[in-house]
Specification:
seven-stranded parallel sheet, two-stranded antiparallel sheet, globular, binds iron/sulfur cluster
Amino acid sequence: MYKLIDLKVGSTCNNKCVHCCAANDVRDKNLSLKKIKNKLNEFINLYKTIDLTLTGGEISMRRDFIEIMQYIEFHKKLGNIREVHLQTNGRKLSDTNKLESTIGVVDYYLIALHGHNSDIHDKITGVQGSFDETVSTFKQLVNRVNAAQIAVQTVINKLNYKYLVDTYKFAHEELGVTEFNLTFPHPMGDAFDKAITPTYTDVKPYINAAMYYFISKDIKPLPEALPLCVFDSEYRKYISNINDTRFIGAVGYDQDGNLLDYLELSKEAHSKYEKCKSCLANDKCEGIWNEYVELYPNECSLPKPIVHG
Ligand code: SF4
């Protein structure tokens, strides 16, 4: 197993998403190119060969984005970096030169699309025209890489949860995307707000409608921060299998440059309600974000515990 490194290159972003959990991030606004190179070298010296996830903020808006790609390519050719995952809102990848610099360097693109039209998506991102730019990137990218390398990430929030199926339909049928992340927000930063983060009970029917759509299209979505009780019984086996086999361990760094083990942090970051004690999935379930329980202390915000196999 190669060490998975989560490299957050900064917190500056060209979107102002309503659900942004990094809104109060105190880390460097942007790591300089030199710091990014140093961090990569440190990780490579420590672990020899790494898998790399690039996150932000928004990395593709940087002026030195192409140089970052070139440096990663250099290490890939040396065999120091095996796989590269890019988390992006995709807007600036609509610039052909930037997109081209990722080809053969990035193995997996995780692109945020929060609605099936500009009304919803732009309202969520807070930037008019962001939908068109992101869609343009999808359209260019599907012609340059294998469809299995492109995934849509839709962060579920109060503005879009009723349109999940429309969003996935649009991404699959209009843009040709076949990979999907079904992501519940981490209620931190701007997302710590009942006007932004819905309850699990609210989203349950829409999540299951989305699952019905995915299964009908032979699509295998990846759930994030969605406990088993949110899914109808017919989808639980699939979700359990994904949860059992998925590797979520990654290493990053804090604002002082110290190493962070995300698997360890994840255990401390989750809570359960009293009613979870009666749930058949309790032993395996990692629970829900601490901040969610803080935001919604009433147990009704979680669907009923699982009492039948
Ligand atoms: S343990 Fe709690 S959060 Fe987890 S599936 Fe059961 S009821 Fe849901």
